[in-house]
Amino acid sequence: MRSTVRSSWSLDHSTVVQEVSLYQGRPFVELRIAVEWHESARVMKVVVPTTFSDPTSAAGAPYGYVERPCSGHEEPLVHWIDISDGRRGLACTSDASGGYDLLGSRLRLTALRSPRVADHGWGWGNDDPVAYPVTDQGLHRMRFRLTPTWARGLRPGRPDGRRTSCGAPGGYRHLASGRLGPEASAIDVEGGSVVVPVVKRAEKGSGTVLRVWEVSGRRSRAQVTLPLHERSWVGDLGPHQVRTLFVSDDPGTPVRDLDIPELELGVHSPAPSPAAAPHIP
């Protein structure tokens, strides 16, 4: 089912254990890295060399993506980055990295960084480790997945629902009465380019809040079902549109849209226009 190569090494006061795995029938390579990190004023990066010629990149941003040149500058990312030369592409998703640099065809993902808090490189905290602690110390576990974007119809250089997460487990809470069987689905989504990245209890009112997001940059119709609630919602989303839904615990109350800050739960909010802003330029 899975073949894995494990490597381990040390750097001064730190140790790194890396596992690289291939899964039967899965179109990606997975990297799992455990780091016991005790360095100061150092950055740890995961290097992904590729064979692309003059590639371009697109990186995840909050509810969108940003296209950037491969300049070698440190840039932020949210969950994923895609490298493409127009014919081939490679997507990398991560549950840990929040930054990267890409120079030519060499991708480096920022895994850990350890400056002193609020020191800004001026040495203010050298004699005060309590007020200016070194960041990212201790044990860290991270996961990366590398997926060829021509596999199974993924489009080079564009986001897809499979790029939005690294499969990290989330938290679950049983919101229905009675007992669960051996198998259960908390939420079902129909619509090839729609994902639901947020499912949580409402801070006001008795119900559940869902964030529904169109990820491919085209108009889409989605059906979202909560089987345990026996509730369902069908709606249209524009390119990269985000809709926030409130599902009341009262089965007689219809599912309705909220503003993204989730204000005024007691007041009906009209559904937003399906025409949403395009991707972040």
Q: What is the radius of gyration?
A: 22 Å
Structural class: mainly beta
The termini sit apart by 41 Å
Number of strand segments: 19
The neighbouring-strand order within the major sheet is 1-2-3-12-9-8-5-6
Order of helices and strands: EEEEEEEEEEEEEEEEEEE
Q: Can you tell me the residue ranges where pLDDT is under 50 for at least 5 consecutive residues?
A: 161-175, 266-281
Q: What is the residue-averaged pLDDT?
A: 81
The proportion of residues in beta strands is over 45%
Briefly characterize the structure.
This protein has no helices and 19 strands. By secondary structure, it is mainly beta.
Provide structural commentary.
0% of the residues lie in helices and 45% in strands. It is built from no helices and 19 strands. The chain has strands at 2-11, 14-23, 29-37, 43-49, 56-61, 64-68, 75-76, 80-84, 89-94, 99-103, 106-113, 138-148, 188-190, 194-201, 207-214, 220-226, 231-237, 242-248, 256-258. The protein has an eight-stranded antiparallel β-sheet, with no helix packed on it. The protein has a four-stranded antiparallel β-sheet with strand order 4-11-10-7, with no helix packed on it. A four-stranded antiparallel β-sheet has the order 14-15-18-19, with no helix packed on it. Strand 10 and strand 11 (106-113) form a beta hairpin. The radius of gyration is 22 Å and the shape is globular.
